[in-house]
Design brief:
It comes from Pontibacter locisalis. It is built from five helices and 16 strands. With 364 residues, the protein is mainly beta. The protein has one domain: Beta Barrel (Porin), CATH 2.40.160.40. A hairpin with a 3-residue loop joins strand 5 and strand 6. The protein starts with a helix and ends with a strand.
């Protein structure tokens, strides 16, 4: 246990140097589908979870939170539709404690746009339209996370965790990619205060792309573009620091107020605090609970500053809202947010509503 704790903190200390070395050859927004978020509780609170994640979704948000599971077996399922249902985001997880000081979880994520029409063969050699020649394909991103958490024997209230993730990305018959990375997290409880630290892609995540040149050759020649080549990309580390506080008003009514700060190192981003070296994206969320059965949630995240055609700028944040209900180990959560398609990392206030539905079940 001592060696595990020491290795964890050494890994976090090396994070800064790793991001500096990798900065030169890494694209911005690499594997960004892994930063959208999972679970209606979290998304209803503006993706604030680093310090307070305590269910089967913790394998994604902060694996250290797996030590707070209330039952022996825990299942979490989520379905959400983005951009008015064009994209589907699905998540499933199973988590369980191994003993009083450790826990394990396996999670799967799929983000996809399905039924895209391939019209390359729509017109035959005689110039006639053949609708039966249309084929359909999907653009899908997959990730599987295997998470492990262990309680520190050196510092009371400290929980540590790590997730190994395997990534598969597919663009029909045209291209696919495989990747591998590691996340690491920690949570610390002090009375009614909770602190969390999550280091995503702490070792940088390597993703290798392979293109089917034969399938693309004709279309690229007609448009005069160069054929794509097999490439590799690195996803730089991202640090998330979270703080939460629990308020108890009476025997039945309580609340959690929490905030997360996302630190990215892949160049200037359209966030509240940004520079060429590091960008900081704050978000805040609140959860009101009645008798630990009925929940009302809200959150703000994804600060954006956009410029209009007349040169004026507009500042906005994404509002989120959610409700939840829990009984006899079964929980149902619903969240709504709005999606903005102005920028690949933006989920902001002007766009179409997104609905997130989550189910969970825990039992002994």
């Amino acid at each position: 246990m001592n060696r595990f704790t020491l290795s964890f903190f050494v890994l976090l200390m090396l994070l800064g140097s790793l991001s500096t070395m990798a900065q030169v050859a890494t694209p911005k927004y690499s594997n960004e589908f892994l930063n959208i978020g999972v679970g209606a509780r979290a998304l209803g609170m503006g993706n604030v979870q680093a310090a307070i994640a305590n269910d089967a979704t913790a394998g994604y948000w902060n694996p250290a939170g797996l030590l707070s599971l209330r039952q022996k077996y825990n299942i979490a399922l989520m379905h959400s539709e983005l951009f008015a249902g064009i994209a589907k985001n699905d998540f499933g997880s199973f988590a369980m404690p191994l003993d009083t000081n450790s826990a394990l979880a396996v999670s799967v994520i799929r983000l996809a746009v399905d039924d895209i029409a391939d019209t390359r063969r729509l017109q035959n050699e005689y110039g006639y339209i053949q609708y039966d020649s249309i084929r359909f394909f999907s653009v899908a991103d997959y990730a599987m996370l295997v998470s492990y958490a262990r309680r520190s024997q050196l510092i009371e209230g400290l929980q540590l965790g790590a997730s190994a993730k395997i990534i598969y990305r597919n663009v029909g018959e045209f291209a696919n990619a495989y990747g591998f990375g590691v996340d690491a997290g920690a949570q610390l409880t002090r009375g009614s205060w909770q602190f969390g630290l999550m280091a995503k892609d702490v070792t940088t995540t390597f993703t290798a792309w392979t293109h089917n040149v034969e399938a693309l050759e004709e279309a690229y020649q007609q448009t005069g573009n160069d054929l794509p080549e097999s490439t590799a990309e690195l996803t730089l580390p991202r640090l998330v620091f979270g703080v939460g506080k629990t308020f108890r008003f009476n025997d039945k009514l309580s609340a959690i107020l929490a905030t997360d700060l996302d630190f990215t190192f892949d160049g200037r981003r359209n966030v509240l605090l940004n520079s060429d070296v590091v960008s900081v994206d704050p978000h805040v969320g609140v959860e009101l609970a009645y008798a630990k059965t009925v929940f009302v949630r809200g959150g703000l995240n994804n600060y954006q500053e956009t410029q209009s055609f007349d040169g004026s700028t507009t500042k906005r944040m994404q509002p989120n809202f959610g409700v939840g209900f829990t009984t006899k180990g079964l929980n149902f959560d619903l969240a709504m947010s709005r999606v903005n398609d102005k920028e690949s990392n933006a989920i902001a206030g002007s766009g179409t509503s997104s609905v997130i539905i989550s189910f969970g079940y825990s039992f002994n």
